Amino acid sequence: MQQFVNRFGMIGALIFVLIQIVQVVFPIIPGGISCLAGVLLFGAVPGFFYNYIGICVGSCIAFGIARSLGRPVLYKMFPGKMIEKYLTWTELKGRFLKLFALAIFLPVAPDDFLCYLAGTTNMTWKQFVTVIFLGKPFSIALYSLGLTTLFQVIFHLV
Fold it and tell me: Which residue windows are transmembrane per the record (predicted)?
């Protein structure tokens, strides 16, 4: 697959970044899987940067969509139980930004959903972009490199 992508040169990388953007805006596949693909297709460092660019841009688009459409978009895209669970975060005076930042930094939260949810709060664009651009590198690195290591271990055992 890497040879296939490499035949396209920079267009292959651009296509991958676009796929990352789309997978955030329309969360169909888990982000961890696409992060692994980025590292496997392009190598650790370029794959990390392509993942980072695509996920950050997609996160900003998700925030903007929710900012424009409001909470009804959450109910069209995500399970009600998930929405109700995280809506409680928005009810904690002054704590949503901190919880959001922590969740974005750690690679275990439903980041795509949280970007949409953040768009329905009073969080500013500046706050959102700061959290995404500073918080995403750690979680993307953990997903990308951690899953790559796991992938290599599994296939060396086979």
Answer: 12-43, 49-75, 139-157
